[in-house]
Design goal:
The complex is a heterodimer of chains A (456) and B (709). Chain A has 456 residues and is of the alpha/beta class. Chain A contains twelve helices and 34 strands. Helices cover 28% and strands 27% of the residues of chain A. In chain A, α9 runs antiparallel to α10. In chain B, the strands form seven sheets. Chain B has a nine-stranded mixed β-sheet with strand order 16-17-20-23-26-29-32-35-36, with no helix packed on it. Chain B has a seven-stranded mixed β-sheet with strand order 5-4-1-6-13-8-14, with helices on both faces. In chain B, strands 18-21-24-27-30-33 form a six-stranded parallel β-sheet, with no helix packed on it. Chain B is elongated and about 110 Å long. The N terminus of chain B is likely disordered. Classes of the chains: A alpha/beta (456), B alpha/beta (709).
């Protein structure tokens, strides 16, 4: 397949502080003791997409990610790591690496996805319709994972992390409208011309944009060049393409520019028509685009397609602390087929080298990393514990993530919290819905609820 | 059938029986309350106009009867006597044992559907005619859909949900929408509840859906047609009574219910199966379309060759030619496809007639060409006339050699002179064109703003001065139409839509889009919509400010902070203002209050201002969450000071006071200072006043920083 894959792996994402730090960029955050990026790479590999460009914000982060990639999967995949400046946005990142893009179509995948939906299917849909852009949509989690009682739980009920409002045609093939629910203040406005062409539009809020896009390279680069102010793929480029799908400026402008340059107008006009007829002839079904085009003065259209993932598929983006908790819980729980680990009879994974004290229980849906030690009379439930952690006696860990090399003193009780690597909890610390930054020391005997521990 | 004879008291007693077996009732509005069919409707009500030689109301009544409706109330308004006369003479009254009981309600004063329903409601309290759910249709509906199942569905739904008071019938559109008003409706795909209803002629632009709708999946349709067939619960009548300003059934009532979430009434839609037909005749174009559909037998069994309302059936030949058995026609006449020829009509030699309907008792001369036209009864057309896409009413005489250009409407008994050419789209009537003042006595009334415009541009022609209007031996006035409306004429006539107009429409739609694009800001694309609102809203801001001020002053008398907030918020949503605008307006009103409170000196004014600020800062604080909003307030204040000499000198003092009271933060003051630093000297008057304050704030913040580090 002539598809180039771009993974947008981000940098030190500010909404994941204190989990990310100079040492751990977002792409390397552990999900069940594996960097989140590895899930994306596995997913792509399983779809036989092996030619990858990983785009990381910031040189430092790029070095870290590059280091991990070369150690982990250099033999299996052809991965290029590109660093871009920080805070350029997704569109800016693509602009920066434009010279790397050569293939006819580009598959853009967010680097923080933990999922089992096949990106190959998006690529296939994209090709079948010869679309300008194809968007993967998946079902929005219905109940919301707030039941876990994580720190983000309350915020989440107020404004869901992702509430996309998506308009589809009656066959659910084309994307007619997209907006972010949060940005709609009072009412949403749907273009009449698109409605008239399509006849019916189904506006749904139970789908979300999965941040897996297939773009036609020429279209993408054209838009990025024409609209230097566009920063975000999702918020700028995609809505622009969707809005202008019935009077595409992309192809025409491209040709016009060339036209003027060559002084060879007619030829290019023909090219233009050829391009168009190709677009149309490749369609598997006569679509409204075609209907709209026929009989009217040569109007240009492009198609925005969707691929709707099966509802049974798992999909989470690791873009908030809540999502981090959720994805850790799910990968060793309900969605354990993603982790690639094999579970014991107790539905948990305890590394053979881990040491457990007497009367210590590790419940189902738990994970205990290599070389970790747990003292006596401890209880671990639905939690992930990293490698080489030292955990004292009488410790209770529920619904939490403890990263590598953390130290937890005797008599601690941890619920719904994240303890980053090398952090230390002294004796009898009680934490509930807290995040402890890497290397931070929490004083003995303290009791906290919903706090963030980070050095200033 | 004896049931309806029982007195009302008896009815109450067998209540349980009543619930299970309610009589099916319908209200037929025999007045469209529009002027689309003028000038014809000046002389005859629309429902009695012949549609393929049978009055429209017969189609409606025949359909209602076969659909199982037992009692129909025909609401008459304009020309009520004509309607009643017709009904009394018709089969509906004379049948010995009718399945359908037809009653009439007369209210000559009603000028809209709203008035009509209110009138029925008032009658209702005396007679209690309407006993339960009823079907509301207008007398120009042609349909063959079954209703019993639909009414049952409505009742079941009503039983489960008290608030489901109306079921609206919709139908897949035959793409008529491109010229007629476009209809955009949003329904819930599962429950079929109607969520949004928008009808409009404007091309391009956007459909606005309220955010609250988007919680679940919404289906927005443009390919649906409203059949104006509604199953209503009795609440509908009382709602009209309660909301005396509801006039139009859709524009006011439906939209009113959808917007009003206090009562929570719901409207549901029912899409009819494609095998059934339903359409309403609301203008000449739909008259043309429905006529063709009847000829093409979509409306079976309501077709010309079947007797369904006492009509004499015609004989159906090949190619959709219906011919009366006694029609006399010369062999040499060429009668083309889809043509209807009524009883007692004589057609001369030669000539060509196709795609047309010719009524009863017409006499058509030789070598006449009639194409796509509707010739009603007793029309005389002399030799060599040419008639294309015209409507010719009863008793018209067209003298030899006259030509009717496309789109002509000749009203009753008009005479067109020899060899005269009636220009395209003209409407000719024996009656003078009413000026707008006349419309009071004429109840086919203009309730559409568009048509009102049309009338206002009209000249009342004098018969004498226009003697040569229709050629020699003519009678009739040509109604004049103002130029702007003339452009729209083609939309509502029986002429097929010209190709170039079609192209125009689509192009217009396109142009709109491009205009849209130009206002789109480069980034944050999705905000474009809100921006475009704001551009419209700029003019609104003045009104908004005034209203806020009024609200504020009124509320102050009540002295209730919550009340003020509620009122201001309602203004805010009505005008779609940002919270910065609110802050500005509230502050403006506060300062105005201070200035207007009697005072003798500057210090007294300052004291007034401070007491007001202290008292109402809660309200102000609500809109001042962001630094930007606070800056807005300072700028607003600056503007005010420029206008009011009294406030000017107090600027710094009051800003300082606002700071002390935590209404504005130091950030806001400092940033305002920075923004103003680059302004013209003249703009800096107030900045200079505040220099000391800013200096002091800067120092204070520096100190704080030092402490921090």
């Amino acid at each position: 397949m002539d598809f180039q894959v771009v993974i947008l792996a981000g940098g030190f994402s500010s909404n994941l502080v204190p989990l990310v730090s100079k040492e751990v960029p977002k792409a390397l955050l552990p999900v069940a003791n594996r960097p989140v990026l590895s899930y994306v790479l596995d997913l792509l590999e399983s779809n036989n997409l092996k030619d990858l460009i990983v785009v990381v914000e910031g040189e430092d982060a790029a070095l870290k990610v590059g280091g991990w990639i070369s150690s982990a999967c250099v033999d299996r995949l052809h991965v290029e790591v590109a660093a871009v400046a920080e805070n350029v946005g997704t569109a800016g990142a693509l602009r920066a690496i434009a010279h790397h893009l050569t293939a006819k179509d580009i598959l853009i995948v967010s680097g923080d996805i933990v999922s089992d939906i096949p990106p190959g299917a998006v690529a296939a849909t994209h090709r079948r319709h010869d679309a300008a852009v194809t968007v993967m949509l998946c079902a929005q989690p219905v109940s919301g994972p707030s039941e876990s009682g994580g720190s983000g739980g309350k915020d989440k009920t107020k404004k869901p992390a992702c509430d996309d409002i998506i308009g589809l045609d009656s066959l659910k093939q084309f994307l007619l409208y997209i907006a972010k629910g949060a940005e709609i203040k009072k009412d949403t406005r749907v273009k009449k011309s698109i409605l008239c062409a399509a006849g019916k539009m189904e506006i749904r809020s139970d789908l979300m944009d999965s941040h897996i896009y297939a773009f036609k390279r020429s279209v993408l680069q054209e838009v990025l060049d024409q609209k230097p102010a566009f920063r975000s793929l999702k918020e700028d480029v995609l809505p622009y393409l969707v809005r202008t799908q019935l009077r595409s400026e992309i192809f025409s402008d491209q040709n016009n520019v060339e036209e003027n340059g060559n002084g060879n107008g007619k030829n290019n006009m023909q090219n233009n028509e050829v391009v168009l007829s190709q677009i149309l002839s490749n369609a598997s079904l006569p679509s409204f685009h075609q209907v709209y085009e026929s009989g009217l003065d040569s109007r240009k259209t492009h198609k925005c397609c969707v691929y709707i993932a099966d509802e049974s598929k798992y999909f989470v983006r690791l873009n908030s602390i809540q999502a981090f908790m959720d994805v850790n819980r799910d990968v060793i729980g309900d969605a354990n087929h993603l982790s690639g680990y094999s579970f014991s009879a107790h539905h948990n994974i305890v590394h053979p080298s881990a040491e457990l004290g007497s009367k210590t229980t590790v419940g189902p849906h738990c994970m205990l990393g290599e070389g970790s030690q747990v003292g006596d009379k401890c209880s671990v439930k639905r939690s992930v514990i990293g490698r080489h952690c030292r955990i004292g006696s009488n410790v209770k860990i529920v619904n939490s993530v403890v990263m590598d090399h953390a130290t937890i003193g005797d008599g601690c009780s941890i619920q719904g919290s994240v303890i980053c690597s090398n952090a230390q909890l002294q004796e009898r610390v009680t934490l509930r819905d807290c995040q402890v930054e890497a290397g931070y020391v929490v004083c003995a005997g303290s009791e906290h609820k919903g706090e963030i521990f980070a050095r200033k | 059938m004896g049931a309806q004879k029982k007195p009302a008291a008896a009815r109450v007693r067998d209540d349980s029986e009543d619930l299970t077996r309610q009589r099916l009732q319908a209200i037929v509005l025999a007045d469209s309350f529009t002027t689309q069919f003028r000038p014809i409707t000046l002389e005859r009500p629309k429902v009695l106009l012949p549609l393929v030689n049978i009055p429209m109301i017969d189609y409606t009544l025949a359909w209602l009867e076969s659909a199982g409706i037992e009692e129909v109330f025909v609401f008459c308004c304009a020309h009520s006597s004509q309607v009643i006369d017709y009904l009394e003479k018709s089969e509906w009254y004379s049948r010995p044992n009718p399945n359908l009981l037809v009653r009439t309600i007369v209210s000559p004063k009603s000028t809209s559907v709203g008035d009509a329903l209110r009138y029925i409601y008032e009658q209702q309290t005396e007679t209690s005619q309407i006993q339960g759910d009823f079907v509301l249709v207008s007398g120009d509906t042609v349909s063959n859909m079954p209703l019993a199942g639909l009414i049952q569905e409505h009742r079941d739904r009503k039983k489960k949900d008290e608030k489901a008071i109306m079921t609206m019938v919709i139908k897949k559109d035959s793409r008529l929408g491109i010229v007629s008003d476009q209809l955009f409706i949003a329904v819930d795909p599962l429950t079929k509840q109607l969520l949004h209803y928008e009808e409009g002629t404007a091309r391009g632009g956007d459909v606005c859906l309220d955010k609250s709708l988007l919680d679940s999946t919404v289906l927005v349709c443009n390919d649906m047609q409203d059949c104006y067939i509604d199953i209503c619960s009795p609440e509908v009548l009382s709602l009209f009574e309660d909301n005396f300003d509801y006039q139009h059934l859709r524009r006011h009532f439906v939209n009113g219910l959808l917007v009003d979430d206090i009562m929570g009434y719901k409207i549901f839609t029912h899409e009819i199966q494609s095998s059934f037909y339903a359409a309403r005749i609301d203008n000449l174009r739909s008259y043309d379309m429905v006529s063709k559909n009847i000829i093409q037998r979509w409306t079976y069994p309501y077709v010309p060759d079947i007797n369904f309302s006492g009509n004499r059936p015609l004989k159906l030949g090949r190619q959709g030619i219906y011919r009366a058995s006694d029609a006399v026609q010369s062999r040499s006449t060429n009668i083309g496809a889809s043509t209807v020829i009524g009883y007692g009509t004589k057609i001369g030699n030669g000539g060509k007639i196709f795609n047309s309907v010719i009524g009863n008792g017409c006499s058509i001369g030789s070598n006449v060409v009639i194409q796509g036209s509707y010739i009603w009864n007793n029309v005389t057309i002399e030799d060599g006339c040419e008639i294309r896409n015209a409507i010719v009413c009863d008793g018209v005489k067209i003298r030899a050699g006259a030509v009717l250009q496309p789109g002509v409407v000749l009203s009753f008994n008009v005479v067109v002179g020899r060899n005269f050419v009636v220009p395209a789209y003209s409407k000719v009537s024996l009656l003078q064109q009413p000026t707008t003042e006349d419309s009071d006595e004429e109840l086919e009334y203009a309730d559409r703003s568009g048509t009102a415009d049309l009338l206002s541009g009209v000249n009342n022609l004098q018969l004498e001065s226009k003697a040569s209007e229709l050629g020699p031996d003519r009678t009739g006035y040509i109604w004049e139409v103002c130029d702007s409306a003339h452009d729209e004429e083609w939309k509502h006539s029986v002429i097929p839509i010209p190709m170039d107009k079609l192209a125009d429409i689509t192009r217009a739609m396109d142009d709109d889009d491009i205009e849209d694009e130009s206002v789109v800001p480069p980034s944050g694309e999705l905000k474009s919509d809100t921006d475009s609102i704001n551009t419209d809203a700029n003019d609104d801001y003045g009104y908004f400010e005034r209203e806020v001020e009024e609200t504020f002053l009124m509320a102050i008398i009540k002295d209730d902070v919550d009340h003020v907030i509620r009122l201001i918020n309602s203004r805010r949503f009505a005008y779609n203002m940002a919270s910065a605008d609110c802050a500005g307006a509230v502050f403006y009103s506060m300062m105005r209050l201070a200035v207007n409170t009697p005072h003798n000196s500057a210090s007294e004014l300052y004291r007034n201002a401070t007491t007001i600020i202290t008292k109402w800062k809660g309200v102000l604080g609500l809109y001042l969450k962001q630094t930007d909003e606070q800056i807005e307030v300072i700028m607003k204040f600056e503007e005010m000071c420029e206008e009011s000499a009294e406030l000017g000198p107090l600027f710094a003092q009051i800003v300082h006071f606002l700071y002390d009271k935590d209404v504005v933060q130091e950030d806001a003051i400092l940033r305002w200072g920075e923004e103003k630093a680059g302004a013209d000297e003249s703009d800096k008057v107030y900045l200079k006043q505040c220099e000391a304050l800013i200096q002091w704030l800067k120092e204070a913040s520096e100190e704080e920083e030092e402490e921090d580090s």
